[in-house]
Every structure is written in structure tokens, then in C-alpha cells.
From TrEMBL:
Xref: SUPFAM superfamilies: HMA, heavy metal-associated domain
MF-aspect GO terms: metal ion binding
Disordered: region residues: 117-197
Domain HMA: 54-118
Biased composition (Basic and acidic residues): 126-172, 180-197
InterPro entries in the cross-refs: HIPP09-like, HMA_dom, HMA_dom_sf
Gene3D superfamilies: 3.30.70.100
Name of the protein: Heavy metal-associated domain
Species for this entry: Macleaya cordata (Five-seeded plume-poppy)
């Protein structure tokens, strides 16, 4: 305490501990031992990672139902290095992509699900045959057509284009005529339908009136005329018989 020193024992980082003390106590602190490394010392070599890129592994696993496939997928996704996993219930295949080891993946599946998994060997890409490359390179260039043949081809193409234009014009004229005929026929059909509907409505109204007359006959009102008041005692102008 009198020397203003603190001794710390344990596995700690001196620099981090000194910075933490300065931050908490707001006081200056200095490391006495061990001293920081000198600037001239060589920098240690960085060890490069030996992990390869992502690979795709196909496994053949016996799955009974969709629940088994879903459970197997969840278990495989929990493994370190696995990125995606897809299960096919119909074929019994499981496709896994990631940076994991194929043999370790098989052991992991057996330990987690107690199911035997077998790696499906992937076919190797077929090498390109050199003979085909040579044949493609040795193909002769096509001969250029002569000017006379070019003229004949151009004339033939012009005639064909003229024939096509004439056929298009005839088709458009025929289409317009047929459309006009169809429109006239549609208008006549609509008028006939309207007339039929009106006729049916008239018949229905007549039938309704007949039924009303049958079930609800007309009521005749009888007016009651009061008797004459000539001989009434209440009438002061009435006649009196003595």
C-alpha cells in the first residue's frame, strides 16, 4: 500500500487489465511487469485455415414418413458446418451442403437418429474428347454465293412477299365481311329474344290474374240505406197522424 503497487495473480491480459483499472477508477495506471513486447520482435506467422469450400453430399437414409424426414432435417441442420439440408421422402435421399466432413456427417446421423446413412457416390464429369474439338476446328468455311444466285434469290423473295401481302389483304376483307354478317345475325337474335321474353311475361300475368280470380273472388259491397225520417219522433218536421 505504501509503494502504490498492486499485484495480480492469474491468467490475465496485462494491457486489458490496466485499461480496465483506468476506466473504473479514473486514475493513471502503469504496468511494471511483465513489460510489453519490443517493437523490433518478429510478428508471429498467421496460420491459414485449412477448411475447404462448401461441398454437397448426398446420403441414402431410410425414412418411414414425413415426420421422420422433418426430424432428420432438423438434426442435420444442428451439426457444425452444415448450411442447408433437403430431404426426399419418395427416394430416401438427403442432400446436404456445407463445409463439414462426409464421414463425420454419417457418424453424426447415426448418433443422433440411430439410422444408417450411406453416401451416394457422385458421377465424375466426363472428359471432353480431343477428337471432337479437332473436328470442330477443321470445319471448312462455307463458300460465298455467286452474284447471279443472289439476284435470283432476291427476286424470288420479293415475289413471295407480294403473294403474302395479297393473301393478307384477302383475309382481312373476308374477316370484315364475316364480322358484319355475324353482327347482323346477333342483332336479329337479340330482337327475337326480347320479343319472346315480352310474350312470356304477358302469359305469366294472365295466369296470375286467373289464379287470383279463382282463389280470391271479388267481394260485392252492399250499401245499407237508412229508413225514411218522415214519421220519426225525433224529427221535428215529421208528419203526425192523429
Amino acid at each position: 500500500m505504501a509503494t502504490n503497487q498492486i499485484t495480480v495473480k492469474g491468467i490475465v491480459d496485462p494491457q486489458a487489465l490496466c485499461a480496465r483499472i483506468q476506466k473504473k477508477t479514473k486514475r493513471r495506471a502503469k504496468i511494471l511487469s511483465p513489460l510489453p513486447a519490443a517493437e523490433g520482435e518478429p510478428i508471429p506467422q498467421v496460420v491459414t485455415s485449412q477448411v475447404s469450400g462448401p461441398i454437397t453430399v448426398e446420403l441414402n437414409v431410410n425414412m418411414h414418413c414425413e415426420a421422420c424426414a422433418l426430424q432428420l432435417k432438423k438434426k442435420i441442420l444442428k451439426m457444425r458446418g452444415v448450411q442447408t439440408a433437403e430431404t426426399e421422402l419418395s427416394t430416401g435421399k438427403v442432400t446436404v451442403t456445407g463445409t463439414m466432413d462426409a464421414d463425420r456427417l454419417v457418424d453424426y446421423v447415426y448418433r443422433r437418429t440411430k439410422k444408417q446413412a450411406r453416401i451416394v457416390p457422385q458421377p465424375e464429369p466426363e472428359p471432353v474428347k480431343e477428337e471432337e474439338k479437332k473436328e470442330e476446328g477443321e470445319k471448312p468455311a462455307e463458300e460465298a454465293p455467286k452474284p447471279e444466285e443472289k439476284k435470283e434469290e432476291e427476286n424470288g423473295e420479293k415475289k413471295e412477299e407480294e403473294k403474302k401481302e395479297e393473301e393478307k389483304k384477302e383475309d382481312t376483307n373476308n374477316g370484315e365481311n364475316s364480322s358484319n354478317e355475324e353482327k347482323g345475325g346477333e342483332n336479329n337474335k337479340e330482337e327475337e329474344q326480347v320479343k319472346e321474353l315480352e310474350y312470356h311475361e304477358v302469359l305469366q300475368n294472365e295466369e296470375i290474374m286467373k289464379k287470383m280470380m279463382y282463389y280470391y273472388p271479388p267481394l260485392y259491397v252492399i250499401e245499407r240505406v237508412p229508413p225514411p225520417q218522415l214519421f220519426s219522433d225525433e224529427n221535428p218536421n215529421a208528419c203526425c197522424i192523429s
